[in-house]
Amino acid sequence: MKFKDKHRFVRSNMKKNRTRVWMTILASTIGCAFLIMLASIGFAIHKTAVDDVMSFRMVNEIQVQKESGMMTENDVKKLEQIEGVKAVTRKKYTPANQLSIGEYNTFANVISAHMPSEEKAGFELDKGRMPKNKNEIVVGYHFAEELRKDQPENALEGLSEEEAQKRMKELSYKGNLLNETLKYHLKTDNPEIKIEGPVQTVDVKIVGIGKKPTRDWAHDNSVFITEDLYNEVISILGKQDPKIASADELKNYGDVKAFTASADDVKEVTDRIEKLDYMTYSIIKELKQMNVYFTLFKAGLIFIGAIAVLIASIGIFNTMTMAVTERSQDIGIMKAIGATPKTVKRIFLLESAYIGLWGVGLGTLLAYITSYGVNFALPIIIEQFVNETPPEGFMLSYIPWSLTAIAVTICMGVTLLSGWRPAAKATTVDVLKALRRDV
Amino acid sequence: MISVSNLSYAFKIGKKGKENIVPVLHDVNLQVAEGEIVAVVGRSGSGKSTLLNLISGFIQPEVGNITINRTNLSKFSESKWAEFRLNHLGFIFQSFQLIPSMSAFENVELPLVLKGVSVPERKVRTEEMLKRVGLESFKNHYPGELSGGQQQRVSIARALILNPPLILADEPTGSLDSENEKQLLSFIKELNEKYGITFLMITHDHEVASIAHRKVEIIDGYLREGRMLHEVQR
Question: What is the ipTM of this complex?
């Protein structure tokens, strides 16, 4: 018997008991939707947590530290030689942070960075190029916003937060900073050190502006200076403050990160780095621990949801058992004229599979609609009734394709299992008993 | 065509382990030649239906052999029996055994569906067969909308649709009036003469037995061959 004929046969049988079949489909739909919706809460919480962790760090980034002391040039070289390491970025904190252009002034996060490594690690520019000469610098995307005209200390007093922000924006530098020369004030940021006379400055040229951070809330006003300029700055600052000249943290690297070509290599590279007695920290490591807890949590939710599917499957079992009982004469006639037990079984399994498929299809659709509705309406409800704004990117329900696949597998599996017994029963229908029914 | 040798059968009645064994057939031997019409006659409870059920494969023999078309069917599984029935046997039942939810066309088409014949071929063959039994204008009617005679003709059309060489008929005229009975018997004769189809019929009707080339009688599970009709009646 061809599949098309089985399908036709099953369709006509299902039409005969439309109400009963649709009520069973409805039960499967609700069961499947409940399973997906319940598990989607777990998936949403997991996703929010992962997004939160990932928003701060890059996936292929491994932070490296020594158990005691700071990372030196030798350590960096060792790391660079490890197989799988694409780049090793190293940064030194610079204890002088004032820069100005004309009447505009700012106190920025000045960092000495090895620019070729930064570039290799994925640092991208919005405009311009990387520094080639000693006095060339690269600034963060929001640097211009932080460059403001001087104002009296109480200028923002009495202003609301919105008004204060507006005022600050008005005072910000409006022009294009690329290729502009700024004055870098070489005064130590140690407030205890007082300098008599004018502060020595050095002219620095902005040759590049960093790319806008992907996160809306991230604000990048850092300044990258070359290692040569850093050495010059430290020797000048060392004269102002003797502690600087001898400070270990200014000679060595405060922030060293190894980057791999892809996230898949992070684990192996981390193991290699740890073998060299360094301490590591990577997002993959953090996510691995987090994933264990969330997987258990999600499995628990799926298990509870599966109970609803099991309850729905009782409906399928009943419907199919009744179908077999009602149609035992038809089954007997079919067997008498040459239908094999396999054919009979397949017809009934197909019928329960169709009920399951309809239930799964409608259930999944219902779950997606409900999920969308909940994610859309919940922030509005929270704002209206609790008077609070939920965090950005917050979602109560998230249905990835993997959840849909799990739910479809569970629902279809349970459906076929519940249809198996009635289908097997159909094959055992006694031909003679069935034929004698209406005699 | 059919060869039954040393066939015995007993029903087991009651719970497993405490069954009562009721012997029905004893050492039955029967030969049916190709193109023959054989009527099996006997009183109610004599075992004639059991014999037909054994030859049809609806029940499995415990002792003896059944051979149809040189195929020994004694050790056939349920699936193999089903396939054999589909390919070699046609059935005419007393109560027609049509599927009530299917139209006359669908009932006749069913063996072709089970065999996996393509839709266009099925349509041609089914319409041709319905024409042959004079029911072309009733093809969309459901069994409940047809008379007893028409239902039996649908049943015959279904039995013939796959051109089986052997038709097993269990009281084929049992539910028909005399007019329809006459028509059916002449149709069976025509099929036998024109197409050489072999018939094995179970009946207690003299009229039906009269068209048979040969009659066999079953008395209390024992088969006696070649007795004349008046002897059977006595």
Answer: 0.88
